[in-house]
Amino acid sequence: MKLKNIFFALLFLTNLTALHSQNGIITYKTKRTKIRKTSNPEMTRKITEEVNRSSYVLYFNKEKSFFKKVKNIPLYPFESKFADISTGANKNWYQFNGINKEAMYNTEILSKQYIINDSSRMKEWELFNEIKIIDGYTCYKAVNKN
């Protein structure tokens, strides 16, 4: 499963757990051994290293969730931008109401701030009745069909 899909799964799962009146803050790291290879093996190695150095925070309550990357000083600033794009962490994501599956992010275009609705990303998720307790939170399995 792509790392980006895992992030969206966490966002989606957070809203499912929020339906059970849970709320909180989750901080986590990723471990990635394989990313899309570039034509330059050294660049691929640096991107992978930046992905593995990154950490993320997910804030949630019963109505919404917010996902962002924790700021850090990259070892390789150029490759760090590619790492953020490959993980979906180049934007701060908001998700509202797990039933409607709305996902949005802010962006700046020509010095103006816009809220982009990217809910189409959330429509491809298949939910399962499999439950796992992670750090005291009830999580439901969700898989991206893409």
Write the layout of secondary structure elements.
Layout: H1 3-18, E1 24-29, H2 41-53, E2 55-60, E3 64-69, H3 77-87, E4 93-96, E5 102-109, E6 112-117, E7 125-134, E8 137-144
Antiparallel strand pairs: 1-2, 2-3, 3-4, 4-5, 5-6, 7-8
Helix pairs in contact: 2-3
Keywords: Signal
Protein name: GLPGLI family protein
Organism: Polaribacter marinaquae
What are its keywords?
146 residues, 6-stranded antiparallel sheet, two-stranded antiparallel sheet, globular, signal, GLPGLI
- How many distinct domains? 1
What global shape is seen? globular
Task: Give the structural class.
Answer: alpha+beta
Number of helices: 3
Count of extended strands? 8
Approximately what portion of the residues adopt beta-strand conformation? 35-45%
Order of helices and strands: HEHEEHEEEEE
Average pLDDT works out at 75
Radius of gyration: 16 Å
Into which percent range does the helicity of residues fall? 25-40%
Describe the structure in your own words:
This protein is α+β, with helices and mostly antiparallel strands and 146 residues long. It has one domain. It contains three helices and eight strands; from the N terminus they run αβαββαβββββ. It has helices spanning 3-18, 41-53, 77-87, and strands spanning 24-29, 55-60, 64-69, 93-96, 102-109, 112-117, 125-134, 137-144. A hairpin with a 5-residue loop joins strand 4 (93-96) and strand 5. The model has no long low-confidence stretch (mean pLDDT 75). This is GLPGLI family protein. It comes from Polaribacter marinaquae. Keywords: Signal.
